[in-house]
Amino acid sequence: MADTTSGTPVQARCIGDTAIIYASDYLNKLSGERIERECKRQLESGCRALVINFRDTELVNSIGVSILMGVIDASEKNHAQVIFSDVNGQTADLFEMLGLTRHVSVAKDETEALALITPQANRAGSTTS
Amino acid sequence: METNTQRLLHTFAALADLGQEIADTGDFEEMLRASFHLLLGSLAIRRGAVGEYNHVGKTLTLAAARGLGDVLELELPLSTEHARHLESLGSALSLAASKKEAARFLVDHQRTFPAVEIDLLVPLVVRERLIGVVLLGEKATGEAFTEEDVEIVKALARHIGVGIHSHRLLEEVEHKADENRRLYDGLRTIYKETVHAFAAAIDIKDRYTQGHSVRVGKYSEIIAREMGWTDDAVEGIAIAGYLHDIGKLIVDLNVLNSPGRFNAKESKEMSRHPTAGYEILSPISHPYADIPLMARYHHERLDGNGYPDGLKGDEIPPGAKIVTLADSFDAMTTDRPYRNRLPLADVLEDFRVNTGTQFEPAVVCAFCRAFLKEIEGTSKEKRLMKLLGKNYDNVESVSPILTQLISDLDGDGDMRAASAAGH
Question: Which of B21, B30, B76 is nearest to B53 (CA)?
């Protein structure tokens, strides 16, 4: 289910234990907080990978960056992988410059993002039978 | 685009957004949280907090935080000495000093932050007073903070400091305004109670007109409200009604309580009361306009034959014209030692005859409208009828007279007033 607590709902869908979340056109305070809530909700419900799709995102401001780092932190704590997909050139440069790409994978599109997801056992560093 | 230029543009955008956040006078906590996010996002700092310093409690309250665990609203002790030291660092804070302060902070609060790295501490100082601090952890790049980073953080932190400072000033002003409002309300209540006490004193002195001042105040209020006066002005006219005869306090008691009509000497003594009332009321700072003038001029007439100053038409303040009519109405509708109260039809006939010479047409018209509304039940309250009390039966019978008077006055009232004023 998507987050609808305020304003336009965040679009999200799940494929297995991967959640694909669609960022809005301008990732600022309101929309950023909605995405953060949705990501945390997905992690709490057992998602092991988050794909954040930026296909509609024109601009990410500083609040957006801070909120994405919150998502990265929460994912790391849950041993979940974060992949950004469909990032436009300007935003990709910003993420690179600020070091976000050290903590997330960046994929050209959703298909590539899903292909980048590594098995959970490897990510979590645990052994499963 | 060159990385440095891109970084600069990103910082500028953060600064611009921060300016908007600070200027927004809405939710303070929201403003602080958004500002804090802007600060973290400008350099992609992974963890940190903003704390507000309380000089009285000597505590630092963490108002926004990320990546430091459950520390929101936490109150950390911070001594006056330490606060003064942070104040002294001011805008010259270097990277080394900022790191040193962060290390000291971590040592001081080891229990609260046992496994957290805080790399920088930037004091928020406004007008040489410590407002709070910003604590910052590692950057997402993993690179160490640079002097340039510290300058950027300081620039953004200054805005946050000013935001907190402005909020506190606003809170202080609001608190003082509330306090003043309470004091003012208290004084106003005392003033009104004093006025009522004076009205009672006036009416006790004149045993033939008991309750007269209070009734004149209430009639005046009804008329002013019907004339569309503001609430404040209506309150003022009621007070003027209560006090209009205060000058009677200096009138010889024997004259005041004389059982018959006044002789020339007694009339002269009585006619002192409007001027005496003015002199009693003038030194007082009334919360309403023209109270002393309304007492002085309540025996003036539109045609200039009144006293004490023989004013004509518009020379008489509007409030005094209202009190004049209210005073006459009460005088005619209550028993006096030398005559019984008049029938209401006779009172209204007196109004009709004397409108434009003694009474202001607009005031008479408003009085008649208010009276008619009560009789016809179109006004909720029956204040006028209650004031007339049990003295009058079949009040409804004057409806046609009131209707006729209103019709006459609406038609040529202004003309009669202008004529009486000598214009």
Answer: B76
Q: Choosing among B3, B10, B36, which should be mutated to test the A contact, i.e. which has the most A CBs within 10 A? A: B10
Q: Per-residue b/e over B128-157, b at no fewer than 16 CB within 10 Å?
A: eebbbbbbbbbbbbeeebeeebbebbbbbb
Q: In this structure, are residues B220 and B251 in contact, taking their beta carbons and an 8 Å threshold?
A: no
Which burial class, exposed, middle or buried, applies to B97 when counting CB atoms under 10 A from its CB (0-12, 13-18, 19+)? middle
Q: What percent of chain A has pLDDT over 90?
A: 64
Contacts of B294 (CB under 8 A, 6+ apart): B237, B240, B244, B317, B319, B320, B323
Cis status of the peptide bond prior to B123, with omega within 30 of 0: no
- Tens digits of per-residue pLDDT, B309-327? 999 999 999 999 999 999 9
Per DSSP, the three-state class of B130 is: strand
- A92 close contact with B: CB closer than 8 A: no
Q: CB–CB of B145/B120 below 8 Å? A: yes
**Residue B261, SS3 per DSSP:** coil
Choose the closest CB to A94 out of B10, B17, B37: B10
Q: Which two tokens stand for residue B373?
A: 């509304």
**A81-85 vs A11-15, strand pairing mode:** unpaired
Residue tagged 């409002």 (tokens): B181
In this predicted model, what pLDDT tens digit does every residue of A104-118 receive, in sequence order?
999 999 999 999 987
**Contact list, A103 vs chain B (CB under 8 Å):** 140
| Other beta carbons less than 10 A from residue B5's beta carbon | 9
Spell out the residues 6+ positions from residue A85 whose beta carbon is closer than 8 angstroms to its own: A51, A52, A53, A54, A55, A106, A107, A108, A109, A110, A112, A113
The whole-angstrom separation of Cα B393 and Cα B397 is 9
Do the chains contact at B140 and A103, CB–CB below 8 Å?
yes
What is d(CA B98, CA A54) in angstroms, rounded to the nearest whole number?
Answer: 37
**Chain A residues close to B42, C-beta within 8 Å:** 62, 65
Domain architecture of chain B: domains with CATH:
3-175 (3.30.450.40), 206-420 (1.10.3210.10)
Angle at B312 between CA B311 and CA B316, to 5 degrees: 70
What pLDDT shows up at residue B84?
93
pTM for this one? 0.63
Residues in chain B within 8 Å Cβ distance of A93: 1, 6
Domains of chain A, with CATH numbers? 11-117 (3.30.750.24)
